[in-house]
Amino acid sequence: MGNLPENPRIYILGAGFAGRAIAREIQENSVFGTVVAFLDDDEAKVGRRIDGVPVLGPIRDVIKLFARAPADEAIIAIPSASRELLRELYYLLKNAGFSRIRILPDVAQIVEGEAHLVQAREIDPQDLLGRSPVAIGLKKSIAWLSGKRVIVTGAGGSIGSELARQLLSAGVERLYLFGHGENSIYQIDRELRTLQAGGVGVSTAIVPILGELKDAVYMANVCKRLKADVVFHAAAYKHVPMMEANTVAAIENNVFGTQNLVDACLASGVKRFVLVSTDKAVEPLCVYGASKYLSERIVMAAQLRAGPDEHYMAVRFGNVLGSRGSILPLFMQQVARGGPVTVTHPDASRYFMTIPEACSLVLKAGGVGAGGESYLLDMGDPILIRDLAEQVIRFSGFVPDKDIKIEYIGLRPGERLEEKLFADDEKLERTGFPRINRLQRSGSSFNLDAALEALTPACFFDAAQPESYRNRKMLRAALRAHVPTVEEIPDEPEY
Known about the structure:
Blueprint: E1 9-13, H1 17-28, E2 34-39, E3 49-50, E4 53-56, H2 59-65, E5 72-76, H3 83-95, E6 100-103, E7 121-122, H4 138-141, E8 149-153, H5 158-168, E9 174-179, H6 182-197, E10 205-210, H7 216-226, E11 230-233, H8 240-245, H9 247-268, E12 272-278, H10 287-302, E13 311-317, E14 319-321, H11 327-336, E15 341-343, E16 349-350, E17 352-354, H12 355-368, E18 374-377, E19 383-384, H13 385-395, E20 406-408, E21 426-433, E22 436-441, H14 448-459, H15 472-482
Parallel strand pairs: 1-2, 1-5, 2-4, 5-6, 8-9, 8-11, 9-10, 11-12, 12-13, 13-18, 14-17, 15-20
Antiparallel strand pairs: 3-4, 6-7, 16-19, 18-22, 21-22
């Protein structure tokens, strides 16, 4: 954003509970800047002063009048705003020359009456794209987690870190941030402690843990010591082209890592276990999708070994906007370099939702779901990738195919033109909870034990068959024998 002024003049869009809370924090600490005015459309507020700050409006008219030097900042504090309204406000503010535009989370992410300045962040394309999230009422949805000990695996990743942020507001007793990446766990741990310093989730004990799902002995030991009540399993290798080039690593981490975690959780009495799954697990074409297909079945099988008050379930959804290494940050990087923005195919489409909405629904499903069940989040309608590319280009202030070119590069290994959310042998049932559907599976049973046995020699050294160890060709053959939808690659190298 360039060099920001030391004492910026700040306009707050929205004079409701969130805007007033932000204004009070700024007034109490002048280092944040000076609140110049609230901008609001409510006629009952316009013309008044709230905590000494004038309320001006209507918003659309006032923004045009207050186009000033680039010292001015805006904070959009309207948690209930639709995507359409956010888009309109963003472009009005940008055209008026505001140097910095920040936004508070959706209303579903703010526990009633507790908006904090520390939660405000720079606005980015994911705030403006897709449909408006359903307001599920985070406070009610996370009440079941109050006082619990909760493990989030993959806590440094996009989904895991957002689950951790929301769990911080849930009043959990202990929040275990589990991952194998030192830097990512360090970053989310530091961010959560900053949130606590700003008044969010101050009673929660945050515990960062570095470890490997692939180490069965370690997982059994650490789960026994942590005595967790709830586990959200978000850890996975997930980049499709990368996993097509590292198929053994995908199965070893995603499949056998999940098995290790499930075994450890069953042994240590975890009451609720929620697997974060993906639409790529549906009739999987790629090895990553197959690894999640098997992970879902591992969790379903775990319920047969669970106690009467233990619930092991899977929650499946499609793509999320803005996850690390996903298409949205890639498009932003490509635009920053001057293009071209690369799209696989003009007709390629995906289902998208924002990370905060997906995580809110995962937390909700984890509380209302039953053991042995799979749930599918309602993803709305699919979005064409080229439309997404065009919107990112416009967000950045350019004209598609004039200032920034869109280039079509063809589908990569393991990719489909479009994704399915559920298989032909699955059907959806409503649950009574907005945007959470239950998956009912029919058809023949899957022999999980045989599949795991067939995959074991490629992932773990066996002196009796050393040629199988880390052998990609043999792994794919074993995988296709049990998951026949996986793409066949005749010229795949052995190692």
